[in-house]
Predict the 3D structure of the following.
Amino acid sequence: MSVNIAWEKYLASRDEAARRQLILHYLPLVKHLAGRLAVKLPAFIPKEDLEGYGVIGLMEALDKFDPAMGSSFDTYAYHRIRGAMLDEVRRQNWLPRTTWQKFQAVKSTRERLEREQGKVVSDELLAKEMGITTEELHRLLGHGSRMYWQSLDEELTGLDGSSVSKLDTVEDAGSPDPLSIVEEKENKRLLTLAIEKLGQRDKLILSLYYWEGLTLKEIGRVLEVSESRVCQLHAQVMKKLRHTLQEMICC
């Protein structure tokens, strides 16, 4: 049965066999729309689910389509299918519409900046580009992370083929990061060694400025030099430290 004949039979008598053939014929449109929407949505909503919502929209389009409306079925079905997908996505999302739109704006802005700069952009740059504070940005990102229900029992597959539940990947914010602890200890060790290589006056300047909290003017009185001279000395000390640390790291 050709598509034209199927349409004639379906419009004339709502023939079920013709309806099934029409559904199969327009399935590529459902898959096309699902593929386009899937790239804009979190991984939690798989493309297969979108296709399922789209098939429901397709069936509703067939049931409600009236050729007398003047539009082609393709155009009518396009909007019904896409609408069915988006309606289901919104049902799973309890955010207000305006918050959802802002979150989408954050997502698109971040993607644009990363394409332009070729690297991951900081939250500060992203917030500045959007004309909001970093606090507002973090609030929006927090909303975004809570937009969809997720099962913590869902299995994730690692690069080595092993499986782990989402629950096991949830970060304990109150637990210290072992790598950060090691890095911090190593940085402190290297900094201590670099400071030990400085002269007595350089060590004194660092001690008065960073440990005692004196201003440059107050340090100038201690060293009996001008404030501008202390500023120069401090810059020289920092340059020496950076150079020494670079040598230690390279070696």
In short: The longest strand covers residues 155-157.
